[in-house]
Amino acid sequence: SKTKGGNSYSFYDPKLQTLLEKQIELETDIVRAIACGEFCAYFQPKISALGGVVGAEALIRWHHPSKGVIPPCEFISIAEQYGLIQQLQNIVLRDICFLINELSAENMIDEFFNVSINISQCQFNSSTLKTELLNTINDFDIRSSQIKLEITESMLSGDIDNTIQQMEELKEKGFIFSIDDFGTGYSSLAHLSAFPVKELKIDKSFIDKVLDDGSGFSIVQMIIGLAKSLNISVVAEGVEGLEQFEILKTMHIDSIQGYLIAKPMITHDYLAWHKHNRAL
Ligand code: C2E
Ligand code: CA
Ligand code: CA
Ligand code: CA
């Protein structure tokens, strides 16, 4: 519009124009990068408090020819806005299946080992999620129980009936659900028992404060207590120090993920790491 004054935007607002141009530029670059095979999954191990590698989380990376490795925070939301997230998810899912097959072939995992994939809201809402997942695992001859779907706590607070139905359908096919960033969404605490959830991951912001005198310890303790009462296993994310791990063990955490154990690694490096550390 050409509206003058007030707070209204003009289409020709130069700032908005630049922002839009930047977004389109990024979107075009993502499309190119998909075609060139520049995206891949990295893997970060999850270890049990009792010992042993119990799983891994797939985290997407973009190996840009001139910009180096680009983290997901710089492109995921644009990919979502421009309808490209499904293609990125398929790349991640194929990398996951490849990894699981490699680990199986070398007898490096038991039947309980699973790999997590992050599912964003728009993917979760998509009617094709189930068939996309099933088609890919069938191609690779992977069991659905080897795939864990991470959805964020905030995704539980929308249309609850719809969310439960979508989750139940995927659960019926054998997929396992984990609730990511737990503790940051508030609203769903009371409803947690209504969802078919196997695991919850305590957000790093609380794990960072678990050694402090303040509320950090109590919040983590409360979340672990709640999860235990619902028979849900608890993961601490972003564990960076040994003291953190020690205190979390005394609080009966089930498993941990974080730089203390390992940073996310490209498939080849993860395989080597897993081989040497699976008894960790
Ligand atoms: P998230 O799912 O909460 O993943 C955890 C993030 O914390 C990852 O960042 C991981 O690399 C980082 N991290 C793990 N341990 C530590 C630690 O000890 N210290 C610190 N400082 N960080 C740690 P990353 O890989 O940059 O991913 C950021 C977010 O992007 C993820 O948060 C997730 O929401 C999203 N994401 C990543 N991969 C995918 C994907 O394939 N699909 C979708 N939809 N989202 C993804
Ligand atoms: Ca996650
Ligand atoms: Ca998280
Ligand atoms: Ca997150």
Automatic annotation (TrEMBL):
Domain EAL stretches: 23-278
Coiled-coil positions: none
Protein name as catalogued: EAL domain-containing protein
Organism: Colwellia demingiae
Residues of the full protein shown: 470 to 749 of 751
